[in-house]
Each structure stands twice: as C-alpha cells, then as structure tokens.
Specification:
The protein is an all-beta fold. The chain has no helices and 11 strands. It is elongated.
C-alpha cells in the first residue's frame, strides 16, 4: 500500500508563487508517472502537469510557462513550482502517482493512487 502526503498549499495574492510537494511512501518497487491535477469549485478535475521516470514533462496549456513540475526519485517526491499565479488557478490540487509493486511470485503489478488534496487560493 502506498501513501501520498501533499503539502505547500495556501493563500497567495495574484502574481505570487507557491511550491507544492507530494511524497510517496510504502511498498514501492518503482514509480512511473507522477502528476498534479486540480479541481476548482463546480468544475471537473483536470490535468495540470505530469512527469515520467525519464523526466519527460507535460503541461496543461493554461499553466505552460508559469508552472514547473519536477521530481526527486531518491525521495519518491514530486514538486510543482507555481509562479505568476492567477485567481483562476484557485483549486484543490491533487497528486497522482503510477507505481509498481513487486508481488510474491516476482511479477510486477502497476497501480495508481491519489493524494488527499491541498487547497490553493489565489486572491485578486
């Protein structure tokens, strides 16, 4: 079982910056894709950014040039540096991780899990 702990959310003025962190712990054989999603009030959850184990990144058009996703494989942690924040970035941000576990028969099972979410509020 893998547990994700997110941190770094809060209240910031428009134009400000925040850095989110998400640390994975538990029975992890390998972590594949790590990502951040967000859900604003009354809206569906949407992709913000993802990063592969090879550090290939993907961003939503709305955050390109402002947000940077990175990871520390030694710490099983993914980060989201958010700059030039806008009121429309206000949402609950969720960490998502694709990971592999090694089973007793030496096979690998690929699983996915979500963090509990951290609230980011950007005031105008």
């Amino acid at each position: 079982q893998v547990h994700l702990v997110e941190s770094g959310g809060g209240l910031v003025q428009a134009g400000g910056s925040l850095r989110l962190s998400c640390a994975a712990s538990g029975s992890i054989f390998r972590i594949n894709v790590m990502g951040w999603y967000r859900q604003a009030p009354g809206k569906q959850r949407e992709l913000v950014a993802t990063i592969t184990s090879g550090n290939t990144t993907n961003y939503a058009d709305s955050v390109k040039g402002r947000f940077t996703i990175s990871r520390d494989n030694a710490k099983n942690t993914v980060y989201l540096q958010m700059n030039s924040l806008k009121p429309e970035d206000t949402a609950v941000y969720y960490c998502n991780v694709d990971y592999a576990v090694l089973l007793s028969d030496a096979t690998v099972n690929i699983l996915n899990t979500w963090g509990q979410g951290t609230l980011v509020t950007v005031s105008s």
